[in-house]
Amino acid sequence: MASTLPTLAIPGQRLGSVSSYSAGPGTHVQNANIYASIAGPVLVDPASSKGVKSTLSVSRGPLRTAGTASSSASQQIPAPKLTSTTSKPGTSKPRYNTLPAVDSIVLARVTRVQKRQATVSILVVQDESSSTSSDNDNIDSILTSAANPENHSNSDELRFQALIRKEDVRAVEKDRVVMDEMFRVGDIVRGAVISLGDQSFYYLTTARNDLGVVMARSEAGNMMFPVSWKEMRDPVTGVAELRKVARPF
Description:
Number of strands: 17
Domain Exosome complex component CSL4 C-terminal: 99-196
GO molecular function: RNA binding
Organism: Aspergillus homomorphus (strain CBS 101889)
Number of helices: 3
Domain Exosome complex component N-terminal: 8-45
Protein name: Putative exoribonuclease
Helix content: under 10%
């Protein structure tokens, strides 16, 4: 049956039956069949022992690698390790991801702040090991544009949406977190994906020193700079505002 597997898959394409394969990353199961959830090369992770099914997965790597994916499937790295931070010997590491994955570092704009959570729109998925990004290599220009209130529009609805829950904002004194003091609408936040969530939202955490607000404007509209882990200051007015600040690099 392996010979009938497609070389490339598109979202919603049937790949095989659960009686023959196990579903891996980039796939989902429906009506006892395995379907592709994303577009990319189809990979097969051979069974490690007798009686165990081979695993079908769809890679998040560039589509141009698909020509070699099916012919060398038996020599592939196990599917769970096929992320943007790993690559096969002799090949260049993929520069682009299709979707955020667990442990991905993302840059996102805050679009809504509620009592129990903040909603954000993911702008960039970063490769932490090589400082490359999934959407655009020029992160500075993306953030500068995103931090400008004039550029805020319904385009956020077309991006990946995520939630930062109150308990995931910081690692200490979680019960004393006040969301309005951690984030404001328009802030640019660096976060880590902790869960793929449901079909609507990813879940992010900022409970590390290097995660949190990286760019923010004051109530006067000026770009602020961090002065501590919980405070940013307007250089024009001198007024300080509370934030969950990411450690500067």
